[in-house]
Amino acid sequence: xxxxxxxxxxxxxxxxxxxxxxxxxxxxxxxxxxxxxxxxxxxxxxxxxxxxxxxxxxxxxxxxxxxxxxxxxxxxxxxxxxxxxxxxxxxxxxxxxxxxxxxxxxxxxxxxxxxxxxxxxxxxxxxxxxxxxxxxxxxxxxxxxxxxxxxxxxxxxxxxxxxxxxxxxxxxxxxxxxxxxxxxxxxxxxxxxxxxxxxxxxxxxxxxxxxxxxxxxxxxxxxxxxxxxxxxxxxxxxxxxxxxxxxxxxxxxxxxxxxxxxxxxxxxxxxxxxxxxxxxxxxxxxxxxxxxxxxxxxxxxxxxxxxxxxxxxxxxxxxxxxxxxxxxxxxxxxxxxxxxxxxxxxxxxxxxxxxxxxxxxxxxxxxxxxxxxxxxxxxxxxxxxxxxxxxxxxxxxxxxxxxxxxxxxxxxxxx
Length: 415
Description:
By secondary structure, the chain is of the alpha+beta class. The protein contains 14 helices and eleven strands. Helix 5 links the parallel strand 8 (194-199) and strand 9. The protein is elongated.
């Protein structure tokens, strides 16, 4: 290695000063341990980073704790609401069974006065739906509204599940109209004879509903001698109208199976099936006889429900009792009251349902279609044109058929 030396003269003549080039002197290399320490210092988190990490972890833990607390409080609230709703339902059913109109009305929500008045009127006229026994399985809270899933059972009815709504007002839960928003968005489906409108939560019922509706349409169309027309709208109801569906030409409107009840196997209950068949029959009869009275259409609906589901005919027991007492009203009066007078007298109504069953038994499956084709005139005129007999002969044949139908079984005592 070569080292360059610089020199210059000092103050004294004989003094010589030597200097080394500082930049060219060798520099000692750092120790490996120092380098490793510096790397560790540079790569590790700083105190600020550790503090921020701790804050984030604390927030997350706080949110988890808050979520758990809210879930616990929600569960507690649902349990308390379920107890209160169960108690309110028990008071409602007690009033209904006892026929106590005042107490029953007090247990109904007053937000929709038309709905409330309709239910009270139903109890007054003894048309309230048999309540059975209610067992509230769970309650879902939606603000001041509670959706209760109820198991309904009774000695003479299927065990069903259904949704019932209660509203909290003045510190008390009361029966309330359904809330359509609880059932999801509206959906549509098209079948050979129907355009279906329903909500998302009822998708599970659609296969059974389509089979029932299409089967009823085909069977009833043959019996009513109807001709093919445009598809009917079939709309499921989820609001205050669900318990009293309107009669609209060209539209079948029935309460959702979620409200009328579904069986434990997931299929719609008999109440839904009967109501759907009634509506389909009424629509087909209306297309056959556009001038038919609402009561006649309702009678045809009742007959169809009995015919296709095998259920009991309306007031069969009352008819049998009056038949035994020989106090049945003449058929021409029942005909005029139902066909022309739009009467809601249950005895006239029941007599006409039995007349429809009789003509089908005596003149074949399309006999009711024949009756509808001549329903605009008098009773005697109808029997002559449709069945080529006078009204008196028709009535005697009907009484004989009715007597045989309600005759006691052999060996049965009557009193």
